[in-house]
Amino acid sequence: MEEPKKKPLQWHPAFYAGLQIELAEDAENLIFENEHQLGTKPKQIDVLIVKKESEKPVRKNIGRLFRKYNIIEYKSPEDYLSLDDFYKIIGYACFYKADAAITNSIEIEELTVTYVCHHYPRKLMKHLIHSGYQIKQAGAGIYYIKDMLFPIQIILTSSLSKSENLWLSSLTDTLTETDTAQKLLEEYNRHKQDSRYESMMDLITNANLKLFKEMDYMCETLLNIMREKLKDEIDAEKDLAMKEGRNDGIEQGIEQGIEQGIEQGIEQGIEQMEILIQHLIINSRSDEIERAVTDKEFQKQLFEEFGL
User: Fold this and answer.
1) For the chain, what are the domain ranges?
2) What is the top-level taxon of the source organism (predicted)?
């Protein structure tokens, strides 16, 4: 049987959430804009951060370079920061400055550009050095490019400090440290009502399923994912049943019955899945957990196999 195709991981929404988490202590002075559009044509920058009080410094290491207007370009672990990417974003920054409604209302001295990537951009760094630009390391994984049109920094998520930048440094599909995974779970559990932490944890868990499967217990995030999947399935069945109702009385009865059964069905489904996952772990079949969650037919086969 063919393995089900994995859905592509959505790195950018998680990065946007992670950026806000990392800069939380300065949040009262920062305005975040995701995928800021440039002009009327389809040009956009990944993240724009505007300081409310331009003279107030950002305390977090990744934001100490910030001025009034700060343009962020993000490359996922599957991507690479090329020479053309570098100059394209500089061009976008210039366009952003020139596209303001009032002439020179955005001064060039108020602009910064930040590139965030996982892989060290060796060719780009070599080009910058050969072009006479100075590169200064301002901290673990943080590099300032000197003497350019405006302040520029390159942030390597793979080299950031785990203690100071837990979330951005964990935005990878090659996480191996169980200690880091444990810290992420603890932080997530303290902030699980915050959608930004949920977005980050969902992505990190899905990108590093092997590590989380090998831990002693299942991540609560996976259970949340199961809960949403079960609720979606019940909602879909409800919609179908309502469409097939032959009169108002039947439709009302179906709706009331399904509404009453949704909560009970979700809890029963989660409990059944938890038991199934425990069986798979005990039987050294952890590699089948992801498929059990995503493949409904395979899930049914496992339920029959273990008498659930």
Assistant:
1) 11-213, 220-305
2) Bacteria
